[in-house]
Amino acid sequence: MTSRRNGDFFEYSIVYYLSINRINAEDDSKESVKRLINSFDLVKTTIAERVKLYKLIDRFFNRILKDRKIKSYYLGKDNDGKEGKPEDIYCKLDSDEIIGISCKRNNMSLKHQRPSSLHKFICEKHAKTYTEEYNALNDKWKKELTIYDKWSQIPKDKKDLLYKEFNDLYMNYLTKYVNTKDYYNFLFGIENKIIIHWVPNKNIINIHDYTRQNIPESMTTTMDSNNKLQIEFSNNIKATIRLHNASSSLNGNKLSLKYDTTSKTLNLLFDNYSIS
Length: 276
Prior knowledge:
A hairpin with a 2-residue loop joins strand 7 (219-225) and strand 8. This protein starts with a helix and ends with a strand. It is globular and about 55 Å long. The chain has two domains: 3-105; 115-185 and 213-264, no CATH class. The longest helix is centred in the middle third of the chain and has 22 residues, at 156-177. The protein contains six helices and eleven strands. It is α+β, with helices and mostly antiparallel strands.
């Protein structure tokens, strides 16, 4: 399987586990669940591989649920990420608590946001200005790069300058006009959330339990390098957002710029453990 396919298989395996334990999907997710399961009817995995992963998932749920029970579940929608909800599966418990589960396979990037979307966190007056400045910067660089067909052809010094100019714009508006709590929730998702990070070649699941996190009141942002910003929140969580172009091609009117969001400080506030 490809990396993407392998990641989807992880999500499928959790849905399969819930299904055979007679936990039903909610009505608005039933068609999505059916498509997910049907898409893996022909996946070439051995029975041994499936059993290994099933056992890991069973241990995971026994660990996090304790005496609680799952009443139902539903899948995250494609557009949920834009609203700061990057979870793949949401479990409704008998206590009416909802736990969001984000499935990661090898790569622990938490978010893949586009810098152009920052306007959603800014009041209308400044959001319009940000969009105008962003579009002007995009148009300038699209004109500058017309002599290249592919991103890989652009010299490093030119890429560095491009990254710096877009990061300067992003950091300026992030610092002045964005609410800390809203942006933190966008990066890290709902408060009751668990990230499960499957490492297939080691047959382990690393679990990052966010269900007791503290929401920060403020943040500071610095430029770590031309394409990286460091964000430090007042609850001691630090995030690195790395700007890159998500497409090898330079076709189209817009650059395909995205940030990868990672953090090496999750262990400060969240329960972290592994199951094998």
